[in-house]
């Protein structure tokens, strides 16, 4: 069960945004990721992420907290969610014909890669996602293209570690960026740095 800490920053000006303390593990029904976000300087609580995937990589449960905002969602007729405002009096429901969710947490990169199950020989695959943007978890539908550029094994003290390099393209802007994954851990991506890892990544079957 990997556990550790990511640092999140603005990918453009590198302003520190949060520390994400996480643990994740595959299970009999899929994969689960839970994390707690804290302010980089003060350690104040900023929110949390709880994401569970089924064996096909579909989100069977998502719960996000940011400030006083909350989102609960799942794959249902596309993806469906309920977003609750700070007062709790104006919950809004949403549904989009999309494949999954995304957001600032590294969990979503692992989840998308798990959903697509690409190989280096496959061409780029288009995916529609609902992104919940900080700090108020506002939903926005985004279209991306994912391609697995290469898969390499690296020798470590715990045996070979397989690292996958993806190229992710935002289809509305054409902006491209690399994402490096090892099992269910993000090694590097725009705005994400793996600062601490207490145990090796889990290997998906």
What is the fold's blueprint, element by element?
Layout: E1 3-9, E2 16-27, E3 30-38, E4 45-54, E5 59-66, E6 69-75, E7 79-84, E8 92-96, E9 100-102, H1 107-116, E10 125-133, E11 138-156, E12 159-170, E13 176-182, E14 185-189, E15 192-197
Parallel strand pairs: 9-10
Antiparallel strand pairs: 1-2, 1-15, 2-3, 3-4, 4-5, 5-6, 6-7, 7-8, 10-11, 11-12, 12-13, 13-14, 14-15
Organism: Streptomyces sp. SID14436
Protein name: Glycolipid-binding domain-containing protein
List keywords for this structure.
Glycolipid-binding domain-containing protein; mainly beta
Protein described:
It is a single chain. By secondary structure, the protein is mainly β. The protein has one domain. The protein has 1 helix and 15 strands; from the N terminus they run βββββββββαββββββ. It has one helix spanning 107-116, and strands spanning 3-9, 16-27, 30-38, 45-54, 59-66, 69-75, 79-84, 92-96, 100-102, 125-133, 138-156, 159-170, 176-182, 185-189, 192-197. The relative contact order is 0.17. This is Glycolipid-binding domain-containing protein.
């Amino acid at each position: 069960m990997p556990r550790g800490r990511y640092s999140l920053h603005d990918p453009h000006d590198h302003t520190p945004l949060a520390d994400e303390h996480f643990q994740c593990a595959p299970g009999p029904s899929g994969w689960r990721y839970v994390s707690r976000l804290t302010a980089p300087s003060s350690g104040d609580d900023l929110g949390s992420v709880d994401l569970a995937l089924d064996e096909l990589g579909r989100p069977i449960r998502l719960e996000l907290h940011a400030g006083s905002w909350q989102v609960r969602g799942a794959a249902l007729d596309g993806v469906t969610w309920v977003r609750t405002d700070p007062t709790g009096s104006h919950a809004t429901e949403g549904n989009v014909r999309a494949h999954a969710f995304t957001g600032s947490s590294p969990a979503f990169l692992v989840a998308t890669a798990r959903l697509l199950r690409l190989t280096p020989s496959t061409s780029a695959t288009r995916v529609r996602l609902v992104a919940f943007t900080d700090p108020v978890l506002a939903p926005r539908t985004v279209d991306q293209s994912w391609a697995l550029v290469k898969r390499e094994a690296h020798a470590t003290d715990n045996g070979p570690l397989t690292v996958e390099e993806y190229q992710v393209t935002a289809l509305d802007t054409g902006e491209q960026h690399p994402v490096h994954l090892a099992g269910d851990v993000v090694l590097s991506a725009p705005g994400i740095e793996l600062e601490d890892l207490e145990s090796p990544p889990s290997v998906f079957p």
